[in-house]
Amino acid sequence: MAGSAGGGTVALFAAGAGTGLLAGAASCASVQFGLLTGAVREAGRPLLPVIAFLTAKLAAHTVLGALLGAVGAAVAPGPRVRAALLVAAGVLLTVFALDLLGVPAARRLLRREGQSGHCAAPPAGRGPGVVGNPGAARSPGAFGRLRRPVALGAFTVLVPCGLTLSAELLAVGSRSALGGAAVMAGFVLGTAPVFALLGMALGRGLGALGGGLGAVAGAVVLVVAGWTLMSGLRLGGWLPSPGQARAVAEGSAEFVRTDGAGVQTITVWALDRGYRPSAIVARSGLPTVLVVRTRETRGCTRAFVIPGRDLERMLPVTGETRIPLGSPAPGRLRYTCASGHYPGGITFRR
């Protein structure tokens, strides 16, 4: 029994590591690029900040995996809570981007009053080790310099990419703290080589090229910040509705059926890269069931969210999930994946 359990844990670790290495590294690096940039910002030698960032990320995800495995989806925050965290992450990334672009207000916000990015020369007659040297008093130690990379590495657990959500589903399915921790630890370690190379390149480039590369990195982080912010607003259902005119009744007949008892069934396919169809027209006022189908689906679309109802369903890799909708009033019911991507909606009309 113990050997079987150990073999299962190793298999879960390997599954997580394979997902991270083969599929998750690029997507997670794009989503968490801004946090990594903030970690190596102003680090002349980026090795220690990168190690601190990755160690904190590994620790945070391993703890999350253990909780998911032990308690299941009950410990996972709801869609609205995750949406608020994504919005907060988008705001934080925006501040980092403005800092890289040289905006004074952002620099003041990220640094203590009077702290400069350059080391001041000590007054004459006072070496760096002399008591009372103001330069030494203001100079942060090694642990102080690593505080920000550690905090940002841990914060990555709140900014998941699509493949992170798939690993979390696997952790929940393991039904054990050890199995869940193994999945998430394997996933983070699988993505670590790409993050390490990117972090080292960023740190050395920012140090060597200064403002030029900083401006480019700032522009990239600003795009990532906007994307993260929009994802959070979509996940929370806080974006204005694009309007019911976009949903065309033609083509909806294939996905909307009403049986002899007057129950309306709406079918949506969850694919790896979106939902089909993304716009449906159905009748309001009828008892309605939404059927979400999957076939070898492994992306974040498996975590299906209806923001307006704060409802989330974990879909099987292959199968169908039935979601009763009651008798919807006229209007638009939006859906998205759990990371705020691949939006779609059902327009109910009289």
Can you tell me about this structure?
The longest helix is centred in the middle third of the chain and has 33 residues, at 177-209. The relative contact order is 0.16. Helix 2 packs across helix 9 (177-209), helix 3 (47-71) crosses helix 7 and helix 8 (162-174) runs antiparallel to helix 9. The model is unreliable at 112-139 (pLDDT under 50). The strands form 2 sheets. Strands 1, 2, 3, 5 and 8 form a 5-stranded mixed β-sheet that branches. A 5-stranded mixed β-sheet has the order 4-10-9-6-7. The protein is 52% helix and 16% strand. The chain has 2 domains: 2-117 and 143-236, no CATH class; 244-349, Cupredoxins -  blue copper proteins (Immunoglobulin-like, Sandwich). The protein is built from 10 helices and 10 strands. By secondary structure, the protein is of the alpha+beta class. The chain has helices spanning 2-31, 33-40, 47-71, 79-100, 104-110, 134-138, 142-155, 162-174, 177-209, 211-236; strands at residues 256-258, 264-271, 274-276, 279-283, 288-294, 303-306, 311-314, 319-326, 331-337, 344-349. The chain is globular. The chain crosses the membrane at residues 52-76, 83-103, 150-171, 178-202, 208-229. This is Sulfite exporter TauE/SafE. Residues 21-226 form the Urease accessory protein UreH-like transmembrane domain. It comes from Thermomonospora echinospora. Keywords: Membrane, Transmembrane, Transmembrane helix.
